[in-house]
Amino acid sequence: MKKFFIVSIVLLLIAILLAVGVFFYLSFNLKQSQIPVSATQTESEVVNDSVEGKEVLSTPPPEGIPLRNLPIGESQQAVLDTVGVDVETFVITPEMQVCAGEKLGEARMAEIIAGAAPTLYETTKLLSCL
Length: 130
Description:
Blueprint: H1 2-32, H2 37-40, E1 46-48, E2 55-57, E3 65-66, H3 74-83, E4 91-92, H4 94-104, H5 106-114, H6 120-127
Antiparallel strand pairs: 1-2, 3-4
């Protein structure tokens, strides 16, 4: 009987270590998959602005809704930080909106746009829309 308990405890510890390892592996990969905007710019896209002396992209901004223009609550900000989304540069494209509507339903999407925070499960479903 004593041997059974020892084996059970060792197996339980191994399972916990595996779960923690998978968690850290996935969270590291999610953060690494976010490519910064500056890394995707080519030299031909950057133009010097003679008035202010700043570099400006010659291509128009992407079509969609900039995330910085939306009212984001603290709970939504926490979810975005967890996923690794930069509020200042992220743009919600029409394709993302359609995908999110299909994944969550139009009613729930309206609630989230109004300020409700998505659950962990909903956030996981929405990651495929990015």
